[in-house]
Structure formats: C-alpha cells, structure tokens
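Practice problem: predict the structure.
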Amino acid sequence: MEKAKVLVAGLTVKQLPELEKACAVTYAPVEADKAWYLDHLGEYDGLITGKLPVDKDLLAAGEKLKIVSASGVGFDHIDVDYASSQGIIVANCPASVMQPTAEMAFTLLLALSRKLVLYNQAMQEGKFLDTALAQNQGQSPVGKTLGIFGMGRIGKTLASYARTFGMNILYHNRHRLSDDEEHALGVSYVPLADLLSRADYVSLNAPATPETYHVIDEAALSMMQPTAFLINTSRGSLVDEAALLRALKGGRIAGAGLDVFEQEPDFNREFCQLDNVILTPHAGSATRESRRSVLKEASHNIVSFLVDGVPVNRVN
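Answer:
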C-alpha cells in the first residue's frame, strides 16, 4: 500500500521519525515562498505548518489535502472556515504547549510583582537600589486575586500554579466549568466585567477568534484597578495595543507582561520606552522539551488520521 504523502512547511527541523515511519515526508525548502507552495501542495495528503499562513489559495491548491496540522496550539494562521468547507481537517497541538505557556504566564506575573526588570537594570548599571524605599519594593502574589480569561488547558494549568501561591482565582470562559471541576481547581466563575474590576492580575489565555478580538480595549482597561497588571501569553489580537499604551502611560494600570503582539515580529516599539512593561518574543512554548513534544504531537495528528482514520486534536 502506497504511503500517504505529507509536506512539512515552515519548520527548521528536518527529521520527524514517527511521521517518516508511517508516511512519505517532504520538507519544504526554508526559502520557499507562496508560489512554491501553490505549485507543489497539490500532490500531498497532509500538511504540517509552522508559521506558514495557510490561506484559501493554498488550501484550494491542495487538491488531495485531507488534513492540516499546526505545530502549536494556535491556528489563527489557517483559514479554518474554508478548510471545513472543503472537508479538510484542521488540528493543533494543545498538550505540548500547555505547561510551558502557563509557566511563562506565571513567570511574567512573578517578575512584575517583584520588580525584576527594575532590579536587573539597576544592577547592570552598577546601582544598588535602596529597597527600604517604598518605590523600590515589589509585592507578594500571596493572597492576591488572579483573573484568568480563557479556562482551557493552559488556563487550568496556570490556576494550579497560582493556587500553590495562595492566590484567589477568578475566571471567565465561553463555557462555564462544572461545579466539581471548579471545586477541584479552586476557581470561581464571574462575568468578564467583574473579573477585570476585581483582579490584581489579569491573564489572557484564550484563542484568537472574532469574539476575542480586542476583548481588552479602552472600556475593559478602564474597569481594571490602577494597581493591576495585564499578562498576555495567548495572541496579540486580544489586546487593543493603542489603548493599552495609553493606559500604561497614564498610570491607569500598574503594568503589563506581554509575550505576544498584534504585529510580529515588527511589534510596536513604544512598549520598549516603558519601565512598567516586560516584553518577551512570543516565547511561551520556547522550551527544548516543548518543541520536541509539539513535533511529536503534530506528527501524531497526521498519522492518526491518514493511517488509522482517527482524527485527534481536531479544531473544526
């Protein structure tokens, strides 16, 4: 029996043993442009994509295409609606990025709380700050309230970390959890307006969808406490960055930890001028362990469907 043909796009890795054992695998050239994919995609049954935007044009060119797997949890770079209309499965890799992304969110929370950027910058400049002064003191997250927007796998993992620090945890989600799960996680469901007004830290952990676009806008930021911090490790489109900059410059919120931006990699450099912001380069899942795991999960998505006929991690 002839093996299913799979194209791996936008990844520097050129060795996926689990996938190669079950399928005929081609690794797209690193320099390949859209025209290359339009010329070649028609011969493949499956596609694994890194950052390559898989739009309607590419999906239409994939005449034999049966499944597209993102090599990560995000799939906003894939035209899911058009894929669905063509009977093409779209899958992602939620398990692999769950822990490291939650780690990044909590790392940003701790760094903001304990003024790590201020301390490090001062020490690098040879200054030993007087921590007896109130302006040089951070705060403990213990006993503070964390508001989680998006209680999926990452949100739940973040809640478990926060619980060990004795934090109170509120959440808002499209679908409310069961009473048993809320009790097990130690979380309380509230409307978004309540979460924003009551939380000392607001963490965004929801996917990029039309419903979540600019969910944090001028009105949402005005509901937050002036002592509160915003943390975003999900997608940049959830935040109106112009409104956030105004809030940060005006002292209407205490600070922000941003791992994702509306435009990447050409993010708004105005954030670099602020001393109450921590910026990281979309590094939520950037651990060696996670990157190995996500490639295995993406491979499993393809093999499970093309070889075994069982779709897993399906998002459409």
